[in-house]
Amino acid sequence: GDSVITVQLTDEDKVEEDVVFYLVFTGSTVQHCTSTRKINPGSLETISPGHDCCETVKVALCASREGHPVLVVAEESFQFIQDEAYDAAQFLASCAGNQQALNFTRFLDRSRPPAADVDFLDEKVALAFRHLKLPAEWNVLGADQSLTEDIPRETLMHFAVRLGLLRLTWFLLQQPGGRGALSIHNNEGATPVSLALERGYQKLHQLLTEEEAKEPDSWSTLSHTVHSGDYSVKHHRGLDVYMLTAEA
Questions:
Q1: Per-residue model confidence as pLDDT tens digits over 192-234
Q2: Whole-structure pTM over 0.85, yes or no?
Q3: In angstroms, rounded to a whole number, what is the distance separating the alpha carbons of residues 200 and 224?
Q4: Could you state, in order of their start, the residue ranges of all structural domains in the chain?
């Protein structure tokens, strides 16, 4: 999801300015309808929806004009695939609270990937997390809610901060248990806040300590979502397009 899709119109489809084009993605259990913006008379742009599973869906390009019936201009297939970022997000989501798994992730810190790789990892994994269907009871601190803040342990927040993953940290802060994770010490006595300070991650430390901290600038162009029952509406601020998702 959140990738840019370009639609090339044929000469006969380049019609009057008052025609509105949109795309309808029909999957096995979910349907998405996205608005488009015109780049020029022959090209449209929109954003791909985050889908609920990996499958090939049917996409219809529709044209709407006030006072006229909606026309299906063209149909095509579109494939949603599972990539490494999605695998990583699923793994991390499943090991919230799992000490053996979280300690295993610390080898990434010892290998210290270059800054450009970290930024790419941050963007892709955080985006994949946004599109995961997390269970209603999911918590950053794991399933065992009987553990108190006094019990030292590794958390997903430690993982994100240790690698300097700004976007993933912001995402986790918004989830149940995210704020609570900030005061938990690991076995070395470090909290996510002290880790950010120790490693010189100023933006990250600011994000964790300022009450009025805003989302990272790098996310300002991404979608803002409003949920209502089986429906959700997204506004992608970068392209100014909207997306309606409905569960069949």
A1: 999 999 989 998 898 888 877 766 665 555 667 777 888 889 8
A2: no
A3: 30
A4: 3-81+222-247, 84-215
